[in-house]
């Protein structure tokens, strides 16, 4: 959030606001807050993490004012941007005085030597704004809570429910659609200290974890225990289990292992009023009652806060390999991928990158000295028995050759596997590295039946070229999910409009092809209008009824997925 936007928000409170942006991070100075200056001097030395209640009020007034003000806004409409709904249909949330009182009560009830509440301005900014996200609404949380247990999360929720303070869950912070933004102020609940394996049941092939353990960290710990098991869902490397559950994420392994919902056995959830529930017990299957796992997975923290999850684990395959093959066109690559799927060859992953993305990887230099052919490229992972992997590589090679594929390479050892997969692994980072001053990367996704993937990619690429946008395409072609990454200048309003129109058209095309507006990024703040296009008002009405039943004060991650009213 810019200092200018925050200064506008602070005007009604008669406080000045200055951005000391020498380090690239925004630091705020008001008459009520004394911060260390860029020269290292301090008008009033104290610990940065300890704030007086007047300090809380000042931060809330500046950083969170816009968000709180929106909860007061009842009439007229606010300016809309692409895919955003109007924001007036919300209940009245806590006043600044009430938010301060709620923070005081949380501190008193939880107690302990460590203060779990932070109101440091940099902390607030990190929990309300994301450079990853294409959607960053105005407003920041007024505080960040760092609970250590389910009981502490329950206390936070119970007090916030009493005072109508919005609650925003936070784990990895890597989401792309404004999922953890705080448009109405409130408290961000960061699970950073809840990152443990609670229980490992090797014989049952499952594990109980807290929400802030990363999927990579989980697999590293399982490897250290020589368990022979792993958790197969593989989104971005910084993703944590809590956020993965909230967005029903997936990744490159989805073509073989499915998505997050397929690997959740049960959840411990804190509801809006502080009630703690467990969705079911620990068997792999159950027909007892409603499928509450299916309700909370993908709900983006709008129905409750997940504090523990029991997850299925898979056996580590005996053998792995990777193959790469280039094609003269995206359609040829997509045709080959469709035939692989229709033939029933059990690939572990099948990814596509267009010629622009391959060029971006070369330009980024992250995989040097390897230089990639700048052509549409398919990346395959294979896993299973040694004989099975060899057979599947041969079958895929025949199919790709019949569809104009060339330069087929497959890895003969672990070093070559890492090398061949490196272009796919470095794709996003390479795109981000090309940004110039004032530029951003708009990354979004859709999914269609995989037989239509070539159609939507071709049309979308043509439109981007006609608009003169620098954009690349990559995707999980085995399940019809692809991502569009567009570099644009956020200061150029005309260019921003071009990007918005391009993404909007891509979403509408996907829906016309019986697809979805998002395959794995989820709705968040940025795709609410797209969800309405996809499911219709009656289906949204059912979602709202569920939300109202579990969260009548509408405090759980408000503004995400859908608004209270159309």
TrEMBL record:
What EC number(s) is this enzyme filed under?
A: 1.1.2.4
Cofactors needed by this protein, per the record, are: FAD
Where in this chain does the record put each FAD-binding PCMH-type domain? 137-316
Cell compartment(s), UniProt: Mitochondrion
Top-level enzyme category: oxidoreductase
Task: Note the Pfam families from the entry.
Answer: FAD-oxidase_C, FAD_binding_4
Top-rank taxon of the source lineage equals Eukaryota
Alphabetical UniProt keywords? FAD, Flavoprotein, Membrane, Mitochondrion, Oxidoreductase, Transit peptide, Transmembrane, Transmembrane helix
Specify where it is mainly localized. mitochondrion
Q: Where are the transmembrane segments?
A: 50-70
InterPro entries from the entry? FAD-bd_oxidored_4_C (IPR004113), FAD-bd_PCMH (IPR016166), FAD-bd_PCMH-like_sf (IPR036318), FAD-bd_PCMH_sub2 (IPR016169), FAD-linked_Oxase-like_C (IPR016164), Oxid_FAD_bind_N (IPR006094), Vanillyl_alc_oxidase_C-sub2 (IPR016171)
The Swiss-Prot or TrEMBL record describes its family as follows: Belongs to the FAD-binding oxidoreductase/transferase type 4 family.
What protein name is recorded for this chain?
D-lactate dehydrogenase (cytochrome)
What is the native source organism of this protein?
A: Podospora comata
């Amino acid at each position: 959030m810019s200092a200018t936007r925050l200064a506008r928000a602070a005007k009604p409170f008669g406080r000045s606001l200055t951005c000391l942006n020498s380090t690239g991070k925004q630091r705020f100075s008001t008459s009520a807050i004394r911060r260390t200056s860029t020269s290292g001097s301090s008008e009033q030395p104290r610990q940065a993490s300890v704030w007086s209640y007047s300090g809380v009020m000042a931060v809330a007034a500046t950083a969170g004012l816009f968000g709180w003000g929106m909860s007061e806004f009842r009439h007229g409409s606010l300016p809309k941007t692409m895919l955003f709904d109007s924001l007036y249909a919300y209940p009245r949330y806590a006043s600044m005085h009430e938010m301060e009182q709620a923070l005081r009560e949380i501190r008193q009830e939880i107690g302990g030597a460590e203060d779990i509440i932070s109101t440091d301005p940099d902390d607030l900014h990190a929990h309300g704004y994301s450079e990853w996200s294409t959607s960053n609404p105005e407003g920041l949380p007024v505080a960040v809570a760092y609970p250590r247990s389910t009981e502490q999360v329950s206390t936070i929720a119970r007090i916030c429910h009493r005072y109508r303070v919005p609650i925003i869950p936070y784990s990895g912070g890597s989401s792309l659609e404004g999922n953890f933004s705080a448009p109405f102020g409130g408290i961000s609940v960061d699970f950073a200290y809840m990152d443990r394996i609670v229980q490992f049941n090797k014989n049952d092939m499952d594990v109980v974890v807290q929400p802030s353990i990363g999927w990579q960290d989980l697999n590293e710990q399982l490897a250290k225990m020589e368990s022979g098991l792993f958790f197969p869902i593989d989104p971005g490397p910084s993703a944590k289990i809590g956020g993965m559950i909230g967005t029903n994420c997936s990744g490159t392994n989805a073509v073989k292992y499915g998505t997050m919902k397929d690997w959740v056995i049960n959840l411990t959830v804190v509801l809006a009023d502080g009630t703690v529930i467990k969705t079911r017990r620990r068997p792999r299957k159950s027909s007892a009652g409603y499928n509450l796992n299916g309700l909370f997975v993908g709900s983006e923290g709008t129905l409750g806060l997940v504090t523990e999850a029991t997850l299925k684990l898979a056996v580590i395959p005996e053998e792995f390999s990777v193959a790469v093959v280039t094609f003269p066109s995206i359609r040829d690559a997509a045709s080959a991928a469709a035939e692989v799927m229709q033939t029933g060859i059990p690939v572990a992953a099948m990814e596509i990158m267009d010629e622009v993305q391959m060029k971006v990887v070369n330009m980024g230099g992250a995989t040097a000295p390897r230089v990639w052919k700048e052509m549409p490229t398919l990346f395959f992972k294979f896993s299973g028995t040694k004989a099975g992997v060899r057979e599947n590589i041969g079958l895929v090679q025949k199919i790709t050759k019949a569809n104009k594929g060339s330069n087929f390479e497959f890895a003969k050892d672990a070093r070559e596997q890492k090398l061949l997969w490196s272009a796919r692994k470095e794709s996003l980072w390479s795109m981000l590295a090309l940004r110039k001053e004032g530029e951003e990367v708009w990354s979004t996704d859709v999914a269609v039946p995989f037989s239509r993937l070539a159609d939507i990619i071709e049309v979308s690429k043509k439109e981007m070229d006609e608009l003169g946008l620098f954009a690349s395409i990559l995707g999980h072609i085995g399940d019809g999910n692809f991502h569009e990454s567009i570099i644009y200048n956020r200061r150029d309003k005309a260019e921003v409009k071009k990007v918005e129109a391009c993404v909007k058209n891509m979403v509408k095309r996907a829906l016309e092809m019986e697809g979805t507006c998002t395959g794995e990024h989820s709705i968040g703040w940025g795709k609410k209008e797209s969800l309405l296009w996809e499911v219709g008002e009656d289906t949204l009405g059912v979602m709202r009824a569920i939300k109202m039943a579990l969260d009548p004060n509408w405090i759980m991650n408000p503004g995400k997925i859908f608004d209270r009213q159309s």
